[in-house]
Amino acid sequence: MIKIGRSRRLSHSRSPSLISFIRGFFLGATVVIGANASGSNVTELEELSEILETARIEMELPGLRAAARFSDATVVCAAAGLADREANVALDNVAPMPGGSTGKTFVAAVTMLLVEEGVLSLDDLISKWLEEEPWFDKLPNSRDIRIWHLLSHTAGLSDYPEIRSYQIQSIWRAIRRGSIRFEPDELIRYTLRKRPLFPVGEGFRYTDIGYLVLGKVIEAATDRQYYDLLREKILDPLGLDQVVVQDQSILPEVVPGYMRGARNLRPDGSMKIDPSSEWTGGGVALNPTMLVEFLGALAEARVVTPGSFKKMREMGWRDPDSPEEYYGLGLFVHDDGAAIGHAGLWPGYRTHVMHFFATDTTVAIQTNRDGAVDTREVVRRVADFVGKHGTSNE
After folding, report:
1. How far is CA 206 from CA 20, 159, 261, 329, 385, in A?
2. In terms of C-beta density within 10 A (0-12 exposed, 13-18 middle, 19 or more buried), how is residue 368 classed?
3. Which of 378, 330, 383, 384 minimizes the C-alpha distance to 352?
4. For the segment 143-198, what is each residue's pLDDT rounded down to a tens digit?
5. Which of the listed ranges 165-179, 240-254, 255-269 does the model predict with the highest average pLDDT?
6. How far apart are CA 181 and CA 127, in angstroms?
7. Which residue of 33, 66, 102, 258 is 20 to 30 Å from 285, comparing CA positions?
8. What tens digit of pLDDT does each residue of 200-232 get?
9. What is the 3-state secondary structure (H, E, C) of 65-120?
10. Phi, psi of 363 (to 5 degrees)
11. pTM for this entry
12. Rounded distance, CA 19 to CA 7, Å?
């Protein structure tokens, strides 16, 4: 089952909208296009849908969808397979899926906007904002960490999924409460009194903990809730009205996900792993169109200033053995700056978004299954499609 669509800026039909250790169909086409779409437009859409259906079958995915933003700001989107296997409901291009760590790029953009406003500085020691937290002095490297270290995963912090006490507590909550949910402070506490992995700024270790600490900094510096800042500074100005913040246990209209083949949604819409736990480790559910609109705007310096975006692309620690691939400030940087992006995992879902500077195009893909999925390969195939067709031909 395939649904495809194209618009100058996708016409939004309004839809309500951890990393954890636990971690069809037939080819038919329903074409959704603008009234003035030409035959070549439909051909391109069918080609994109076939790319997705082929990848979906190869990778044994329930559903797979993508959006591609061309250099002229046209967005093309397609969806293949099923959103809900049990109910035989086709996947569409609108209903939200948790984006996992792709939400870190939103957190980084909010941080850079606060830097531009003078509320924060990248060189601020986090002690300036968090010294009164009861756990602060037990945090590894606490007195040496600066904001940019949190943004670039160079603070020397470990992460909670690998800590046995977290794993045991997760099992207990799943059994006793029926769902795994943690507050940010609870998750931060799992790394307290641990030895630093390295001195600040002298290595890289990807963690959710660093971004949860960053969320605490953002809220302490502004005396406001992170999600309110996200809406005010990014979602509303860019018109990203199909992004759902994960501030509640039940996400309206969310696509069911499949964890190791098992459905993650209960009849009441709640998840086995509560999405409100993720917060500034990611914390947004969305669709590929929202991702390409956001990352495309960021790459065009329409979210932060060109100077701020340059820092996001260039700051960070580089491995001497592979300096062309590194993590900047809330972004993975590929091919020495030729492309940027971020991948995301939430139990039951995989997401990946990339922007390619040579063609000024952005591609995002999502599937409603976790586990081993080569999301970057799917992005590559869609990017090849975009490169083949160049501009939108409208």
Report:
1. 14, 8, 27, 12, 31
2. buried
3. 378
4. 999 999 999 999 999 998 888 888 999 999 988 888 889 999 999 999 999 999 99
5. 240-254
6. 28
7. 33
8. 999 999 999 999 999 999 999 999 999 999 999
9. EEEEECCCCCEEEEEEEEEECCCCEECCCCCCEECHHHHHHHHHHHHHHHHHCCCC
10. -130, 135
11. 0.89
12. 34
Q: 192: helix, coil or strand?
A: coil
If we measure between CA atoms, which residue out of 158, 131, 154, 153 comes closest to residue 142?
Answer: 131
Helix locations, the chain, DSSP H:
39-59, 103-116, 127-130, 147-151, 164-176, 184-189, 209-222, 226-230, 236-238, 288-299, 306-314, 375-389
Output the pLDDT for position 177: 83
288-299 vs 306-314: helix crossing angle, rounded to 10:
110
- Confirm if 338 and 358 have CB atoms less than 8 A apart: yes
Q: What is the pLDDT of residue 38?
A: 40
- SS3 state of residue 363: strand
**Token digits for 97?**
């899926």
Is 300 exposed, middle or buried, given 0-12, 13-18 or 19+ CB atoms closer than 10 A? middle
* Tokens linked to 209: 């903990």
Check: CB of residue 347 under 8 Å from CB of residue 18.
yes
